[in-house]
Amino acid sequence: MSGCPFSKPAFPMPRQCPFVPPAEYRDYQQQPGPVKVRMWDGKDAWLFTRYDDVRAVLGDNRFSGDPHVSGFPSLSPARNAVLDLEPAFIRMDPPQHGHFRRMLTKEFMIKRVSEMRPRIESIFSRLVDELLEKGPPANLVDDLFLPLTSEVIAGLLDVPARDHGFFQEQSRLKVLLDVDPSIPKAASDRILSYLDRLITERAQDAEKRTDLLSRLIVEQVRPGHLTHRELVIMAELLLMAGHETTANQMALGVFSFLTNPDQLQLLRDTPSLLRNAVEEMLRFHTIVHYNAFRVATEDVEVAGQMIRKGDGVIALISGANHDATAFEQPERFDITRKADHHVAFSYGIHQCLGQPLARVELQVVFASLFERMPGLRFAVPLEAIEGKGDHFVQGLEALPVTW
Ligand code: HEM
């Protein structure tokens, strides 16, 4: 166990290597139960990093995901500012959570999302054509992955192409952790005002349109199941959750292949490993690395530890996905492993709604990226590639490449 045995470790712990979870998680996994950690505001929380424990917490609705319940742990002042905003269903407990989530489940079912695959392939192919035409170098985050994931989610909601840069920028600001709290709050206000206007306009001819927002207006808002404001907040969640995460995962996936050429060769030789490879990159990077914060709404025993009502809990999926009892040699990026049981999309009622879409997007990219750009390599020394240290979602600041 690292650190002084009498003081509580401070959370979050810095990463020793930007692309690997902090070594402390491994230490904590050697002993049963959680570890008490100290947050920036001087309050304590229970930190769970073991695979089975993380699933036990996330699968138990006696732990609330509502940041307004007393005792909910605080990650940083900037994060508080985001959590203080009007909540989307990602921050709600049952039964409200299910009421809103059910309105969207059929949209993101595997079958429905599979029908989107040809469109995603054609957007990706066009963007790669444009990049090849322009020639190297390129920053794959800004020049390929954000445009791709933005166009996919914006297409679903029918958000005009000219506004993609605007919502990408607001999403980037909203997940910053170590900034003045007014920054993420203002970003959220801007995107909510924008969506408020868009949805007001859309309501005028919603019945003639087929996009998701129009259908929600007709099927949910008009009959009174959803208010205009609730739809605005739901749309923000979809827009934000739907592009930044997946683009970050794509960048880190490329990073992993370029730094593990044997794995890239394996994928080239055995294309049937594609699905495995995508699950492995999701596991390995677990980009929503500070998920999930919870608070006990009653006394609950987990892994032999009594968690008292009002205690803050952090059930770290990034810890769980690097627990050696669930994934042999977790620090290895190994596309032949069976990683399907990872919890990169979380677990329990808040498990990612968009995961079928994220998977299809990732599969489309990694099915052909290295064939279309056979000489793809970093355009700068490896040390110059920076991880997004102080973001709620892990990623790369930029991915400068040439080919
Ligand atoms: C690689 C890409 C993605 C990753 C790793 C990811 C990860 C996650 C995680 C960990 C959660 C749980 C959050 C929590 O408990 O606070 C979540 C929730 C959610 N994600 Fe994703 N996500 C990805 C892509 C997407 C996409 C493409 C969408 C599409 C709109 C999406 C929509 C959502 C929504 C709506 C929720 C809230 C679910 C609920 O609370 O019931 N995500 N995601």
UniProtKB/TrEMBL annotation:
<dbReference type="GO" id="GO:0004497">
    <property type="term" value="F:monooxygenase activity"/>
</dbReference>
<dbReference type="GO" id="GO:0016705">
    <property type="term" value="F:oxidoreductase activity, acting on paired donors, with incorporation or reduction of molecular oxygen"/>
</dbReference>
<dbReference type="Pfam" id="PF00067">
    <property type="entry name" value="p450"/>
</dbReference>
<dbReference type="GO" id="GO:0005506">
    <property type="term" value="F:iron ion binding"/>
</dbReference>
<dbReference type="InterPro" id="IPR017972">
    <property type="entry name" value="Cyt_P450_CS"/>
</dbReference>
<keyword id="KW-0349">Heme</keyword>
<dbReference type="InterPro" id="IPR001128">
    <property type="entry name" value="Cyt_P450"/>
</dbReference>
<keyword id="KW-0479">Metal-binding</keyword>
<comment type="similarity">
    <text>Belongs to the cytochrome P450 family.</text>
</comment>
<keyword id="KW-0503">Monooxygenase</keyword>
<dbReference type="GO" id="GO:0020037">
    <property type="term" value="F:heme binding"/>
</dbReference>
<keyword id="KW-0408">Iron</keyword>
<dbReference type="InterPro" id="IPR002397">
    <property type="entry name" value="Cyt_P450_B"/>
</dbReference>
<dbReference type="InterPro" id="IPR036396">
    <property type="entry name" value="Cyt_P450_sf"/>
</dbReference>
<protein>
    <submittedName>
        <fullName>Ferredoxin</fullName>
    </submittedName>
</protein>
<keyword id="KW-0560">Oxidoreductase</keyword>
